Amino acid sequence: MAKIVLDLHDIYNHGGKIEAELNRVIQEAVEKRIKLVEIIPGKGSGQLKKRVLRFLNQAHIRALYHRVEKDSKNFGRIFVHFRY
């Protein structure tokens, strides 16, 4: 199964880049019909993970994917599942 991995460690302190990368990866998954996107905000304080979850919870983004899964074994990882 193909998946896209987006690691946010390098851009965690660039607000505009975070939104742009999240948009890009979601659109790429939709265009290429990829069923899984793995987003790695890292563990840290949890603020970046909250920001990612807020982004994914926007109505126009939420309509594009099937479900979001927070990795139970790794706090710093989020899976976005698509259904086609």
Counted beta strands: 4
Distance between the termini: 13 Å
Number of helices: 3
Low-confidence stretches: none
Envelope shape? globular
Query: What structural category do the secondary elements indicate?
Result: alpha+beta
The protein's oligomeric status is single chain
Strand fraction equals 15-25%
- The number of distinct structural domains comes to 1
Largest sheet: 4 strands, mixed
- And the CATH topology? Ribosomal Protein S8, Chain: A, domain 1
| Rg from Cα | 12 Å
Please give the order of strands in the largest beta sheet.
1-2-4-3
Shape-level CATH architecture = 2-Layer Sandwich
Question: What is the helix fraction of residues, given as a range?
Answer: 25-40%
Element order: H for helix, E for strand: EHEHHEE
Mean pLDDT, as a whole number?
92
**What top-tier CATH class fits best?**
Alpha Beta
Question: If you had to describe this structure to a student in words, what would you say it looks like?
Answer:
The protein has 84 residues and is α+β, with helices and mostly antiparallel strands. It has a single domain, classed as 2-Layer Sandwich (Ribosomal Protein S8, Chain: A, domain 1). Helix content is 38%, strand content 21%. It has helices at 15-32, 47-56, 59-62, and strands spanning 3-7, 36-40, 67-70, 78-81. The chain is globular.
SSE layout:
Elements: E1 3-7, H1 15-32, E2 36-40, H2 47-56, H3 59-62, E3 67-70, E4 78-81
Parallel strand pairs: 1-2
Antiparallel strand pairs: 2-4, 3-4
